[in-house]
Amino acid sequence: MKYKPPKYILFYVYIFFLLYTFLFIRPQQSERVQLGVYELEKYNETKVNLNIFNIRELEIEIIDTYTTPDDKLCKFEEIYIFGSLPSFNRFVRLRIQDVDVSSGLKVTNEKESENYSRVDYQEPISIISKTFTCINESIYIEFEENIDIEYLRIIQDDSDTYRSVKLINIDAYS
Length: 174
Prior knowledge:
The protein is mostly beta strands. It has helices spanning 9-24, 110-113; strands at residues 32-39, 45-65, 75-84, 92-93, 98-101, 105-107, 125-129, 138-156, 165-173. The chain has a single domain, classed as Jelly Rolls. Strands 1, 2, 3, 4, 5, 6, 7, 8 and 9 form a nine-stranded antiparallel beta sheet that branches. The radius of gyration is 22 Å and the shape is elongated. The termini are far apart.
């Protein structure tokens, strides 16, 4: 009598190696740096000094808004990011690869604010809420490569059409 192996032994070995790879040999998790809570001006522009290095992604979470007598949508008129590329070492307004937002927010100029070329002009990020409550909503900004961020320039709507954001929490991922 000759030994006969199980019928689908190669299939089971393949599944075992896939599970092992996904569970134990995962890519390294990004390192999260909590930069803190920042207060924004109600009507003017706010310069948020960060001075962080080697960053791949930025998360901006809305903590609080200025109160208004009636319900209004929240809006960031413009968000600019200034810093430098480690390979280029010159202070510039940084290009953004991808902008994602949580379910309660919407990027009004998503195609214009994302740019894959370092030469072409890029519009600032403009974000508006879908509902009247925009607290605990997040903005995720991803860059093409690791960058050094000097500061953010956030401009809010100076008319009384929209509600202004008061406090934001910023986290950086490398």
